[in-house]
Amino acid sequence: MSHTGDAADDPAIWVNQANPAQSAVIGTDKLGAIEVYDLDGRRLQSLPVGRANNVDVRSDLGDGTAFTLSGRPISLVTASNRTNNSIIVYEMDPVSRQLRDIAARTITTGIQVYGECMYRSPQTGTFYAFLTGKTGQVEQWALSDNGAGKVDATKVRSFQVTTTEAEGCVADDELGFFYVADEYNGIWKYGAEPGAGTARTSVGSASAAGPLAPTIEGLTIARTSSGTGLLMASSQGNDTFAVYRREGANAFVGSFRVVAANGIDAVSGTDGIDVTTANLGPAFPAGVFAAQDGTNDAGNQNFKLVPFQLIAAVGQSG
Ligand code: CA
Ligand code: CA
Ligand code: CA
């Protein structure tokens, strides 16, 4: 981070379909920017957009599921902006690896925004942004091509998750679920379609003993095959990551922590996380897990990257 103090918050991994080793991590600096880094951690771009808090991406994977703008598939990036409680909308340029503002206007939500994640409906192909709020509300916004080269958004659902903070969230684009971290209480699973209502199930309840030690922060999904994989959560209170099955009743699998290794300090106090199981080249052949690190021994806060096969290997050995 270029800012000192509690600056880094949430990463999103952009997968470069044409050249996977040239993928990038998009990260929020909640003291004033959205930044782009290469897989070696070098900063490629810094956009001084305000207090960007959470960010998400849907990469153009060349499989027909990308967002289309003016008839062209793009990698869509959206984020929450606490400066004006708005939704940031960018396109990632796959050649320059630079973000470009494509919001049709300042898209102001009706809540004090914190978290943000995206959903692509497998039923309609519509893209949505979920915004979560300081006092437990969620808003779902449909994203659309405005016909003039920009993206606009329309609010399609709002509901109350809790009366305290709800921030981290993730949606499952294949199974149609929306997961949200109710920071002091647990993880909730809702239907992700705008008409799904407020029916919900609990994935896990918060407990000081873990596996979800409050506060519960970032959520992400590792896709291992169509419809299967892992739901991962930052259990900030005990510096671990709790892992659940993505499918079925989200059975608990286990927890892990990211320890110091290879001259890199351990990860603690994590806010946002992201993961991909795409092959990102020699350094990350089974994908990569990205986590915000609350304390960086070597300087300002940063994001840490872990080859996904190390986490998968722990899972297989129990
Ligand atoms: Ca994220
Ligand atoms: Ca939080
Ligand atoms: Ca650290």
Number of DSSP helical runs: 1
Uncertain segments of ≥5 residues (pLDDT<50)? none
The molecules bound to the chains, other than polymers, are: calcium ion
Structural class by helix and strand composition: mainly beta
Mean pLDDT metric: 96
* Strand residues, percent: over 45%
Task: Explain how this protein is built.
The structure is a single chain. Strand 2 and strand 3 form a beta hairpin. This protein is mainly beta. The strands form six sheets. Strands 5, 6, 7, 8, 9 and 10 form a six-stranded antiparallel β-sheet that branches. One calcium ion binds next to strand 1 and strand 5.
Ordered list of secondary-structure elements with their pairings:
Layout: E1 8-14, E2 24-29, E3 33-38, E4 43-47, E5 52-58, E6 67-69, E7 72-81, E8 86-92, E9 99-101, E10 107-108, E11 113-120, E12 127-133, E13 137-145, E14 151-160, E15 166-172, E16 177-182, E17 186-191, E18 200-205, E19 216-225, E20 228-235, E21 240-245, E22 252-256, E23 273-276, E24 288-293, E25 302-307, H1 308-316
Antiparallel strand pairs: 1-2, 2-3, 3-4, 5-7, 6-7, 7-8, 8-9, 8-10, 11-12, 12-13, 13-14, 15-16, 16-17, 17-18, 19-20, 20-21, 21-22, 23-24, 24-25
The protein binds calcium ion (CA) (3 copies).
Give me some keywords for this one.
3% helix, six-stranded antiparallel sheet, 1 helix, four-stranded antiparallel sheet, 25 strands, binds calcium ion, mainly beta, 318 residues
